[in-house]
């Protein structure tokens, strides 16, 4: 009888199981690369729908599953949705998802997303619809764990889309139990490299360049880093007054505005807590696929959020923020940016005039979001790290102070405080300008000195390389007796004898004695011979073993390369090291071999030396 096969909940392939109900080892052939579902127990009945997320088994497998997204209006499970949303908010941000939707899945992904948005808009009071919309992207586009058998992304995502509507709510929530961000993450020195690679893969080249040019890299996840960030940002005043309750006015957007806002996001833009990123929507809305239904559903959903007609338990989801009404009859949307005054991209501006970094950041925000939602009043709030503000920000803060003072009884002290702050800021700006002028001169001087040092190092390196290049075709002859005979004739005779008369007079460019001649000296001066090419020099160096066979006074000479001082020191150290090893080892010989500047010690048997 054929053995019973069980389906792995991770890779969805069928394998044999051990007598105790665990799956056999499968996946990679190398130990440590096997599938994460190996050696794990599975449900033998096979009644539970397998989850592509490798989730825990359904503790209540007898419950009926939902056949479609539209059939979840009832609540037979009696889930505590407030606790469910709190759990999903903390867990889903830890689920890794694909950066792009595979092309074979985009049409089906858009169809299912349209169905979920339509279900939420038709019945916004049912939290079950919000749960399915909240979990849709993390479930369908979750990255598989590393190791095990390779899977096709398109087939895997299509399979998850097909089974998503058949999974019960409780099983769906349990699928994400394995993702817990409560554990402290150790500092990984490769996080910087991984972040740069991720930005390049997402097409966000500007962020990748900023990370590469940053001298400090990514900050370590530690309490000290958190305390430093808290010290940079100003604390909330204890006596801050609450905004007066005004009658909110719901905003309304059109399909064209939504499409223009989606396409305005740059590559690599981050998404919300539910895992949906702007790039996913750009994938859905790009190409020849029909987008009218999905775009209309998304527009209807956004207008639903702006109107506030959603359950209290999900009112802070999925965007995680609230809208503040303003007296202009439109909602006020602001974006807070804290640019670094001394950052590389702003230092050329702040060195000229105080506050230009905040002004530049405000201009960039206005270009990005100023016309994205005409139904809202957008205001960029830009405050530099060292204090200077954008003029519109300062005007906005003063306007808030005036509006509060109108509704406040004791407004005299507040206005005095604001004026005092303005005076303090003016003095701080003046002091900052003076300090910047003084420190900038020192910084430029230090930079010039550093550049000069680098130039000297480069010049030294070039000189060394030129010296090596000049000596490349040279050899040095030692112990050649100085006589009335010309050195050219002696050298030519020696080289012809060594190379069997294959060297001609034209191959020898120059023959010179090294050093000043001393009459009483018994040691002859070395002779430097320069050849026409490296090939001729190499031919001579291969024939130096024939020196002992030369006649007369020529059999005592020695020929070597024309080495620089650094090369001579290096060769001398290697020879001493080889002699030391040979003295300690009685069975082998140690010799220095290799090209000039690339020597190494080789180990030879004594019997191999003739």
Automatic annotation (TrEMBL):
Superkingdom in the source lineage: Eukaryota
Record region (Disordered): 35-72
Protein name, UniProt field: Uncharacterized protein
């Amino acid at each position: 009888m054929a053995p019973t096969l069980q389906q792995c909940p991770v890779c969805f392939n069928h394998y044999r199981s051990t007598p105790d109900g665990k799956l056999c080892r499968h996946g990679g052939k190398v130990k440590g690369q096997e599938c994460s579902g190996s050696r794990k127990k599975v449900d033998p009945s096979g009644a539970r729908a397998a989850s592509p997320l490798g989730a825990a088994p359904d503790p209540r497998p007898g419950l009926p599953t939902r056949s479609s997204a539209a059939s979840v209006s009832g609540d037979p499970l009696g889930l505590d949705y407030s606790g469910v949303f709190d759990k999903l908010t903390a867990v889903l941000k830890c689920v890794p998802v694909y950066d792009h939707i595979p092309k074979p899945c985009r049409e089906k992904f858009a169809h299912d997303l349209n169905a979920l948005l339509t279900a939420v808009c038709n019945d916004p009071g049912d939290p079950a619809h919000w749960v399915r919309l909240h979990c849709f992207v993390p479930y369908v586009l979750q990255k598989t764990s590393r190791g095990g058998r390779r899977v096709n992304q398109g087939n895997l995502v299509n399979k998850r889309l097909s089974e998503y509507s058949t999974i019960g709510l409780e099983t769906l929530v349990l699928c994400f139990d394995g993702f817990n961000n409560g554990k402290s993450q150790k500092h990984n020195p490769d996080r910087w490299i991984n972040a740069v690679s991720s930005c390049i893969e997402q097409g966000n080249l500007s962020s990748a360049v900023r990370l590469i040019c940053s001298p400090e890299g990514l900050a370590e996840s530690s309490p000290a880093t958190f305390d430093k960030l808290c010290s940079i940002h100003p604390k909330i005043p204890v006596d801050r007054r609450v905004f007066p309750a005004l009658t909110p006015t719901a905003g309304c957007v059109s399909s064209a505005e939504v499409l223009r806002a989606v396409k305005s996001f740059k590559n690599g833009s981050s998404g919300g807590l539910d895992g949906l990123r702007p790039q996913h929507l750009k994938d859905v809305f790009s190409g020849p696929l029909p987008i009218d239904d999905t775009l209309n559903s998304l527009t209807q959903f956004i207008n639903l959020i702006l109107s506030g007609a959603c359950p209290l338990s999900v009112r802070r989801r999925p965007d995680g923020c609230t809208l503040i009404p303003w007296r202009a009859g439109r909602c006020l949307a602001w974006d807070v940016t804290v640019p670094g005054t001394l950052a590389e991209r702003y230092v050329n501006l702040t060195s000229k005039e105080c506050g230009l970094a905040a002004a530049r950041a405000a201009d960039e925000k206005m270009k990005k979001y100023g016309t994205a939602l005409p139904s809202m009043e957008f205001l960029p709030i830009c405050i530099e790290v060292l204090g200077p503000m954008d003029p519109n920000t300062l005007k906005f803060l003063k306007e808030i102070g005036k509006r509060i003072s109108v509704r406040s009884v004791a407004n005299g002290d507040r206005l005095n405080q604001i004026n005092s702050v303005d005076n303090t800021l003016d003095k701080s700006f003046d002091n900052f300008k003076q300090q910047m002028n003084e420190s900038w001169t020192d910084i430029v001087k230090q930079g010039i000195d550093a550049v000069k040092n680098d130039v000297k190092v480069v010049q030294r390196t070039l000189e060394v390389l030129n010296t090596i290049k000049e000596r490349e075709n040279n050899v040095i002859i030692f112990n050649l007796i100085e006589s009335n005979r010309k050195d050219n004739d002696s050298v030519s005779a020696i080289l012809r004898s060594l190379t069997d008369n294959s060297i001609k007079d034209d191959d020898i460019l120059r023959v010179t004695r090294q050093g000043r001649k001393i009459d009483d000296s018994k040691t002859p001066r070395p002779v430097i011979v320069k050849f026409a090419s490296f090939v001729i020099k190499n031919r001579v160096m291969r024939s130096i073993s024939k020196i002992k066979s030369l006649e007369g006074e020529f059999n005592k000479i020695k020929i070597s390369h024309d080495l620089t001082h650094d090369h001579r020191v290096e060769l001398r150290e290697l020879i001493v090291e080889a002699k030391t090893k040979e003295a300690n080892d009685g069975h082998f010989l140690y010799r220095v071999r290799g090209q000039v500047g690339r020597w190494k010690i080789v180990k030879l048997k004594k019997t191999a030396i003739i």
